[in-house]
Design brief:
It is a single chain. This protein is about 30% helix and about 20% strand. By secondary structure, it is of the alpha/beta class. It has two domains: about 210 residues, Alpha-Beta Complex (DHBP synthase); about 90 residues, Threonylcarbamoyl-AMP synthase, C-terminal domain (Rossmann fold, 3-Layer(aba) Sandwich). Strand 2 and strand 3 form a beta hairpin. The protein starts with a strand and ends with a helix. The structure holds threonylcarbamoyladenylate and magnesium ion. Magnesium ion binds next to loops.
Length: about 325
Amino acid sequence: MILDGRDPASVAAAAQALRAGELVGLPTETVYGLGADAASDTAVAKVFAAKGRPSDHPLIVHVADASGVEHFAREVPAFAQKLMLAFWPGPLTLILPRRPEVGAAAAGGQGSIGLRCPAHPVAHALLLAARELGVHGVAAPSANQFGRVSPTTAAHVRGEFGEGLLILDGGPCDVGIESTIIDCTRGAPVLLRPGRITREQVQAACGLRLLDKEDVASPAPRASGTLEAHYAPNAKLRLMDDRALQTALDVLGKDFDGATIAVYARSLLRVPSAKVLYRRMPDDAGAAAQQLFAVLRDFDAQGVNLIWVETPPGAPDWEGVNDRLQRAAAS
Ligand code: TXA
Ligand code: MG
């Protein structure tokens, strides 16, 4: 059931549902989440079951403001404080040492916990209302079945989980790809997942060089956001540069009548056959991210078999989009 997230009565009902150990679909500025009371291991177990997600894959816990961190984190390194000051509320998740007595199920059994303070007004209103009822954090992975494309509208969430789920509608998500994740448990910041907030922005805000996963000795925990094949549409996705894409299209020829192919490209291409769906990718990285998952879902809904995507630029602001496309292509 989709409720208007701007209606305080809907927000109150959703907060009550969280308090009662039920699941709620909630908008954030990145993607929609499937939320549960982070302190309740039984509520969190429902999230893993609904998503079909292995229960050792940690979830992100959402807090109303930075003061919520102390309920879950044992300590906050100085550089993590700087990142919170610079980017919260916003699309940044920090992995911090966990208080052993809370959130074990949400953390997938890790000694650490992922925390994020979202900027979306509906998410913020829900987190405040839930806190009034004693729910200090909402564990919310992206509201999609395990391995599938994250949802960026309330209708996408209903498509994943059906009418039985209470979903707050907050409109289409602004950012469109999941939050940037920084591991703050290793003495220096480590980038676990790129997003709208770029590595340059992170480094400028905390004054430290950002390490990559490959730079640190012990491997990060199993985490679906970092699996090589993830975020996949049903159709087979291939990345090609503009010339390879044009060559592939030319080979099809005008009488092409095979599989349904969609092309998603920044370049202007000659499309030989009306059987090929052609959609332009925005030139701006933020705009491309905002629509990426909705476009992939739309191609799936149109019964497309193959999605040919022009490889985006290698520039830093495209890192999040490139990361999601590479994972989708690896499936
Ligand atoms: O934008 C987002 O981050 C969205 C919205 C709903 O907030 N959430 C999201 O959650 O993408 P999810 O569950 O799909 O991705 C969570 C990822 C995990 O796959 C893992 O990579 C990382 O967060 N993570 C969470 N807790 C962690 C921990 N304790 N240690 C290492 N990684 C963790
Ligand atoms: Mg996800």
